[in-house]
Amino acid sequence: MSYDASARAARGTVPASDATFWGRLAGWGPYRAMASFTTASPRRQFIVLAVFPILWVLTQHLGPMVQMLRVSLTDAYPVAPGVEQHLTIEHYLKFFQDPLFWQPFFRTLIFAGVFTFCTLILTYPVAYFLARHVSPKNRMLLLLLLLIPFWVGEIVRTYAIMILLGNTGAVNLVLKWFGLIDRPIPFMYTSFSMGVGIVYLTALYMLLPLYSALEKLPKSLNEAAADLGAGAWTRFRRVTLPLTIEGISSGCTLVFLISTGFYATPVLLGGPSTTVFAETIAGFFHVAGTQWPTGAAFAIIMFLAALCITAAFQRLMTMLRKGDKT
Amino acid sequence: MNRRNRILLSCVYWAFVAYVFVPLILMVLMGFKDSKFIGFPIRSYTLDWYMGVFEDAETISAFLYSVAIAVLSTIGSIIVGTWIAVLLEGRKFWGRAVIFGMTILPALIPGIISAIAFRIYARYLGIEPGMGAIVWAHAVHNVPFVVLVVMARLSTLPKSQIEAARDLGADPLIAFLRITFPYLVPAIMGASIFCLLLSFDDFVRSFFLGGYEPTLPVLIFAKLKSGMSPEINAIATAALLLTAVIGVWAERFTRRMNKDS
Amino acid sequence: MTKLILNRRKFLSTTAAAGATLASPAYLRRAHAQQGGEVNIWTYNDFVPEAFKEQFQDETGIKVNVRLVDDQGKQFSLLAAEAPNPTVDIMTVAGHRFLQFIDSDLLAPLDLDRLTSWGNINPTFSESDWSTINGEKWGAPILSGMEVLAYNSDVVTAEEAQTWDTLFSDQYAGQNAYIIQDMMSIVMLMMGYDGNMVAYLDDPEKAAQIVEEAKNFLIENKPKVRKFYDGGAEFQQMMVNQDIVLGHSWNGPAAALINDGFPLGMTIPQEGSYGFVYTYNIAKNCPNPDNAYTFLNAILGSPEIGAAMTKASGFISTYKDSSQYLTDLEKKSTSFPDEQLANLQFFRSEANEMKYGLVDPAVEAIKAA
């Protein structure tokens, strides 16, 4: 649906629109009563708008977390019957007292940052190409083309990457066939193979916000800048980039958040020295099935850290945007 | 625009397409391997794995089950997510930051933790494990993604449009439905694709909240226990083909709708 | 343990046996009196053979709902989340993880008077030391697995595979893989200690020192390992892709590779190794206890069912006389020479709390090293 068309239609028909559906709706008694009741004052209008979302986030988003917080503060969970539960913060202290956990923790944050950056660098030109150099008719098709592979489950895709990068994998076979190597290159089970797998998974989450930001960028702006004698790089830096910061920021936020929580891909594609924090947390839930409180406490620590970083990042982006406008 | 740049960009695009598609092609190819394991070298080929998929009632019903869950949970996420985005974007009120924080909460929690939290909470609420519980968990989990995408689009909505409509006598709801909503459609489409993907691909929440009927990822995980066989590749390929067909049809359909309207 | 191994040998070499047939044995006819209903089972793929399931449903009118699980820990978490009123009747627990389930009060002890097919299980498994806890039986053994050294026989010789040392040799550096948790027990065994740690229950200091020693050994050898893996499918894929040429593995995944024609060999090395048993267990407060017993009696009813499970999973059947239903290749991939079997011990759970209290942090330390 084209936005312009409907906006035009809206503008044209709102005043004398008794014949249209909207006009009939606006004139329908019960609707009028409802509308005038709910919009009588800005305050009432706000309450009507806000009640449902607030109830939803409180009960649906916060509820499970509160349950988890409760678990993280108890000394034993699941509780055996007859055993009394006590409140404790020992599980939080455990993280701060044992340097053993710091390494996977910081590694996860660093990996997530690096992979987010790689994803951005890789997908920005792709989104740019799609939004600026492809005719609108083919755009959707080319975009859909890129979405197809993401429809394959994470595990199957991950095994496909093993078949690609293994010692007898496709890449090594091709290199060997061209006589470039004698012995296979061990790509698998390194941070490289892990990066290939993770960027594959995150690319989509970066691509879509970037694409929608670039798509709505008016072409005329660039042309105007070119008329003023700005070179391609300057145009990109001074015009395109600042105007797409919104997209970059939401894409990076999404990808960063998603990559801190990845479990299966790093476990399957990583090597002996690439343990991520999600793996540590999951360990408390399944390898040692009775340590839920520790796992829950660690999850909350991870969550708070990711939240802080995201908030700082968002602030930085807002500053950049404001800085550019002045 | 400079021709050289254009060629360079299209090379990057097609290199990206290759990166994304090569594993996929390998997956499709391995479904033809006459062995119980995937990998090179392939000594002989067979059609049995692919034929088997369409004869296997368990796989087909798992696929349909996953599709139904994805569609239902996406509808839920879109409604709730758009609503929250409209509330949060461009409004200043006491507690806005807190609500925003709570909104993106589900996206921040690692899968296994969120799955267990949902499971405990479902029991607390009295939701029976099964389709309803999975739809609920997927819908809640996907809301933040909808909110982020819709808010990004909403922030660029020219205020003048709404004001014009209001000046002309449209009440807020009609102004929303006629001006804001059409403007949001591309973002909502994008967000729907996100949600469908996240739901269709989700293993851990489906596992913890599911009943005795497996979703496709749960079935694949269970089959993986006895080895990564070409059968799994064949199932994934078939699922991909079917969803691609549905996707292309949906795209055509919306395009035709747009032309008509 | 010696008695156990003798029984085991006898069991594994049994070929000919009196004809037990699948064709509608007595248990099913008796079960006809039941009025249908359903039975809910959590188990691994292929642990309830499809043909058996259909026959059982037809003849008893009880609907079998199978929920596939893929991991013991997840199963535990799931059951713990459902307790005290689970939806499940029968689960599949690994024998050495009993204690965790029992301590959390998730299992009901088996009532052997109602379990008329109990006698069909090889006593090696049904009567061995790990199977009785607190004076009760908690699970009916169905399949058995063991930790083996598996190797690509085009590269590694059978002689080299006789010792775990080869796994840590410089020659195969970067071409090996193992599951750390499991390897910890084996390293303790290599060093001449009791990997079950039951012997050190009264001496926690000694236990801590042993775990420390094993941990240091694995940290020292970390530069040579290609991958710490978790699942059998990963191991198989590494072998097929030739990312590794040898590794520690469970016998099931290795057997599946052998049966597919991959040049794989497996041994129980001279330093010894551990085995475990999958059992069917009844959940505490399960919704359909009567149907659960009917199901257990039926599935344990014939060695042919046991053989079908072995064919599908690669694990060794615990049923008496089931090997007569296997082909020669299947027999080969699920049996070991007597002198190797003599090195095998079963995992035990008595010291698990102490053991995993020490081993889990050690595993984290190895990963972080």
UniProtKB/TrEMBL annotation, chain A:
Membrane topology: Multi-pass membrane protein
Domain of life: Bacteria
Primary location group: membrane
CDD domains noted in UniProt: TM_PBP2
Record PROSITE patterns: ABC_TM1
Family from the record: Belongs to the binding-protein-dependent transport system permease family. CysTW subfamily.
Annotated Gene Ontology cellular component terms: plasma membrane
Domain ABC transmembrane type-1: 105-313
GO biological process, one term: transmembrane transport
Protein name: Spermidine/putrescine ABC transporter permease
Presence of the UniProt keyword Plastid in the record: no
Transmembrane segments: 46-63, 109-130, 142-165, 185-208, 295-313
Record carries keyword Transmembrane helix: yes
Keywords associated with the record: Cell membrane, Membrane, Transmembrane, Transmembrane helix, Transport
Organism: Salipiger pallidus
TrEMBL record, chain B:
A Pfam family the protein falls into: BPD_transp_1
ABC transmembrane type-1 domain residues: 63-250
Parts forming coiled coils: none
Keyword tRNA processing part of the UniProt annotation: no
Major subcellular location class: membrane
Family, similarity comment: Belongs to the binding-protein-dependent transport system permease family. CysTW subfamily.
Membrane topology: Multi-pass membrane protein
Taxonomy, superkingdom: Bacteria
Transmembrane residue ranges: 12-32, 62-86, 98-121, 133-154, 175-200, 232-250
Keyword Metal-binding among record annotations: no
Compartment list: Cell membrane
BP GO terms, sorted: transmembrane transport
Alphabetical keyword list: Cell membrane, Membrane, Transmembrane, Transmembrane helix, Transport
CC terms in the record's Gene Ontology section: plasma membrane
Protein name: Spermidine/putrescine ABC transporter permease
TrEMBL record, chain C:
Record-linked InterPro entries: SBP (IPR006059), Sperm_putr-bd (IPR001188), TAT_signal (IPR006311)
Compartment list: Periplasm
Top-level taxon in the UniProt lineage: Bacteria
UniProt keywords, alphabetically: Periplasm, Signal, Transport
Main location, first listed in the record: periplasm
Biological process according to GO: polyamine transport
Keyword Signal: yes
GO function term, MF aspect, one: polyamine binding
One Gene Ontology term, aspect cellular component: periplasmic space
UniProt name for this protein: Spermidine/putrescine ABC transporter substrate-binding protein
Organism, scientific name: Salipiger pallidus
Species classification: Bacteria, Pseudomonadati, Pseudomonadota, Alphaproteobacteria, Rhodobacterales
